[in-house]
Amino acid sequence: MIPIVIGEKMFRGKGIGKRVIELIIKRAIHLNWSSIKVNKIYSYNSASRKLFEALRFVEVSTKFDEKNREYSSFQLLLR
């Protein structure tokens, strides 16, 4: 598991997260992985959801955490 957080507002929207995910996808393909799964993106995190959807990740489930906050899991099939 690799947590990815762009915490400082001044660094958000600069393409850093997108580049990191693109490199992870490239490495996963090189390692012959069949898929990549993102375990938890909260419904209020629209920027993160848009990023993964733009990179062809598909929502595969929606659940609620212990504080009743909705989150989704996403997956990208590589083969």
UniProtKB/TrEMBL annotation:
Descriptive protein name: N-acetyltransferase domain-containing protein
Pfam families (alphabetical): Acetyltransf_1 (PF00583)
Protein species of origin: Oceanobacillus picturae
Domain N-acetyltransferase: 10-55
Ranges in coiled-coil conformation: none
A single MF term (Gene Ontology): acyltransferase activity, transferring groups other than amino-acyl groups
Membrane-spanning ranges: none
